[in-house]
Design a protein that fits this description.
Helices cover 20% and strands 35% of the residues. The chain is an alpha+beta fold and 320 residues long. The chain has 3 domains: 3-62 and 242-262, Pseudouridine synthase (2-Layer Sandwich); 65-233, 2-Layer Sandwich (Pseudouridine synthase), CATH 3.30.2350; 266-319, Archaeosine Trna-guanine Transglycosylase, Chain: A, domain 4 (Roll). β6 (85-90) and β7 form a beta hairpin. The radius of gyration is 23 Å and the shape is elongated. The relative contact order is 0.18.
């Protein structure tokens, strides 16, 4: 049982919730995911099972495609609709507001889905609060604002993220009320397409981007470029690397039969001589003529797993 599962994560599940459910269904603890999706977000979540957990870092580095909707007129501390409203613009006037007492929403002792429940409650409250906001935006304004964010750029991640600074996650600083300098990171927005504005306060588009891109931050920045404020209302990951929603299964359909074997993940292969078996198993370098990359490795037509070629040398990566 070594391979990957491509799951369509439902809303209000954490990525760990999905992993935990799969561990229970498949009867194994050796499962990891390749890129966190917030509870509010949905879409492609690639899980690595068994020895395929060695691919987690490799698959996490893949480019992504998202479909997102920005709710214009409000900003929150989490950069999405699940947080506290810290400011809003209505009828041309700017206001500041903290609209929820998050400490008294649910009983943490009784509800294991505490954070997801808070997120859902805040989301619905914020949605109702901003329902009648309206902004007059032309297609030209929207196009100009969005096109300015296509390309290579430095992005400052949101405070509510799992990035670590001095060994502590940013969201832990945020929850403790501590200020910390957040380092920027270089990202690439390859393209933004399928732009739709509802004529009121919701702006949607599809984003093709590099790893490490925070769509919540991008959405805030584009809203500010429009002279407003905004926060992420919906976020769906529709593709990561070669895997899309077309390949994804629902949680209720998870089974061992849905696992894609490691051997099926890479198209290219290398056939080694039997004399190279000991070198491969011992992690020694083997001279090859192949280009750099990950390959299926066969010896005497038997599958051994994956090897990584760098600078003309093959070294074992995952041995089955």
């Amino acid at each position: 049982m070594d391979g990957i599962l491509i799951v369509n994560k439902p809303q209000w599940y954490t990525s760990f919730d999905v992993v935990a459910k799969c561990r229970k269904i498949l009867g194994t603890k050796k499962i990891g995911h390749t890129g966190t999706l917030d509870p509010m977000a949905t879409g492609v979540l690639v899980l690595c099972v068994g020895k395929a957990t060695g691919l987690v870092n490799y698959l996490t580095s893949e480019d992504k495609v998202y479909r997102t909707t920005v709710k214009l007129g409000i900003e929150t501390d989490t950069a999405d609709m699940t947080g506290r409203i810290t400011g809003y613009i209505k009828d041309g006037k700017a206001y500041e507001r903290n609209n929820l007492d998050m400490d008294n929403i649910v009983d943490t002792e009784k509800n294991v889905q505490y954070l997801s429940d808070i997120s859902r409650i805040n989301y619905n409250n914020n949605l109702a609060f901003s329902e009648d906001f309206k902004f007059d935006l032309s297609d030209e304004q929207i196009k100009e604002a969005i096109e300015g964010y296509i390309g290579v750029q430095d992005q400052v991640p949101p405070m509510y993220s799992s990035i670590k600074v001095d060994g502590k996650k940013l969201y832990e600083y945020a929850r403790d009320g501590e200020e910390v300098e957040v380092p920027s990171r270089e990202i690439v927005i390859y393209d933004i397409t399928d732009i739709e504005f509802d004529g009121k306060n919701e702006l949607s588009y599809t984003v093709y981007c590099s790893k490490g891109t925070y769509i919540r931050t991008l959405n805030e920045d584009i809203a500010k470029e429009l002279g407003i404020v905004g926060t992420t209302m919906t976020l769906e990951r529709i593709q990561t690397g070669d895997y899309s929603l077309d390949n994804a299964i629902e949680l209720e359909d998870i089974s061992e039969d849905e696992i894609i074997p490691i051997e099926d993940l890479f198209a290219e292969s290398i056939e080694l001589d039997l004399k190279d078996e000991r070198k491969l198993l011992n992690g020694m370098n083997i001279k090859v003529d192949n280009e750099d990359g990950i390959y299926n490795v066969y010896i005497d037509k038997k599958y051994y797993g994956l090897g990584n070629v760098e600078n003309g040398y093959l070294k074992r990566f995952i041995i089955i």
